[in-house]
């Protein structure tokens, strides 16, 4: 599930609203077994959030993603016995799968 950093009451309201929408979408999808599920609710929520973000928020999101990527890569480099020798480009490719 998503985690949010709340900067205002609007953020809290938005999260509550998105969670309720996701729950309703999931409920509707389960009640229609013959209909194919086109997209996962989390992807829909991500698109809604992205569409309502300001340029500053998008830039901050990008910076946070890059920081997380660097931290993941650093962890993998320290624990090569678990993860093997991986390059930053390999980690970036894996990271793209979760976007």
Q: How does this structure look, described?
A:
This is Matrix-remodeling-associated protein 7 helical domain-containing protein. It holds the Pfam family MXRA7_helical. It comes from Nephila pilipes (Giant wood spider). The protein is mainly α and about 100 residues long. The protein has 5 helices and no strands. The longest helix is centred in the last third of the chain and has 24 residues, at about 55-80. The radius of gyration is 17 Å and the shape is extended. The two termini are about 15 Å apart. The model has no long low-confidence stretch (mean pLDDT about 75).
Instruction: Kindly state the percentage of residues in helix.
Output: over 70%
Treating each run of at least 4 consecutive H or I residues as one helix, how many helices?
Answer: 5
Q: Supply the helix-strand structural class.
A: mainly alpha
Uncertain residue segments: none
Q: Termini separation (Å)?
A: 13 Å
Order of helices and strands: HHHHH
- What's the count of strands? 0
Strand residue content: under 5%
Concise structural overview:
This protein has 99 residues and is mainly α. The chain contains 5 helices and no strands.
